[in-house]
Amino acid sequence: MSIQSAILACASSSVTASAAFAAWQSVADRLEAIGIDNDLRRAALIGQCAHESARFRTRFENLNYSAAGLWKIFRSHFANEAETRQFAGQPEKIANRVYADRMDNGGPASGDGWRYRGRGYIQLTGKYNYRIYGDLLGEDLLNNPDRAADPDMCWLIAASYMARTRRSGRTLLEWADADDIVMVTKGINGGIHGLADRELQTGKALSALTGTASTAEWQALLLNAGFNPGPIDGLMGAKTRAAQEAAAAHFGVQGEALLQVLRDVE
Description:
Helix content is 57%, strand content 2%. The protein is an all-alpha fold. It has three domains: 3-58 and 151-194; 67-115, no CATH class; 215-264, no CATH class. Strands 1-2 form a two-stranded antiparallel ribbon. This is Glycoside hydrolase family 19 protein. Residues 1-22 form the signal peptide.
């Protein structure tokens, strides 16, 4: 199987898949040098990026918040709920407030919050990070921040982040080697938000790369289709087998045919 099929399996459409794959091809040697050098690591990178970017549709942070959204997510940056109404629906003004005076950004008047807002598949954010990853990758991201949203740079930044970010003594790529999607997710998200979809996308990518469906992918697909396999732990236990049997009875197919049906469930 191939990188192309893995990206297509996780993409929102053939158009987004084509752009993401072309970008991967253009930097394939650099990705391997960073450490994306086995199928578990490739699947983790593709799956996590697919989740974070709405399946490769989004490469810019959406800061078009309502007043209620601002108060829910960024309340520490506002004096009171009433103040958020002065910012609602104004992405540049919002970025310059909520990202001011941190991550090496200047104050609101500097424009750094908007200039260094989230870009890329995993949303590189803040002047400090644009400097660090620009230096690391030999790109002047400080003076050309939109470069971070180009698909080739999206892959390189995400891969570099996974190679240098550590959780509990291991890099995220080393956690990918252990097939521990929870730890990879914590390193990217800070928690486990969206874990079920991250497991699903990573499993789909790995299946496409190796030609076989992992137990974790079966579990995620079954859960998505409404058949409870128990925890998504990669272990083929009685509850997962029962969920497979229930799905087979419901759809009237088994094996690879059932797998394809489950993959088509939205």
